[in-house]
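name: query_chain
kind: protein
chains: 1
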Amino acid sequence: MENSLNVYRLCSQIPKGQVSTYKCLAIAVYGSPHYSRLVVINSNFSLGGFATGGGKGSWPEVKRKKLASEGILFNDRGYLRNDLREKAIFNDFSD
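structure:
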């Protein structure tokens, strides 16, 4: 539970219009990139996500729409657009 709270706390630091990666959060929370099944997008800049088991739209599509509303855009293959990679990735977490 403590690590989940740390993830939520760190995610709340990500400014609107930026994203982070599973790897960045895993390093910030656990000190290791091997705990990379947390939140946000994959380290290879793909959208990531998993099926919700029903409801309107798939989780990746819901995630894509939410991020698009914040200016985070993905290409047709589901990868963060190249022109956004440097400015959109947040990695400045504080304790």
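note: DSSP finds four helices and no strands in the chain.
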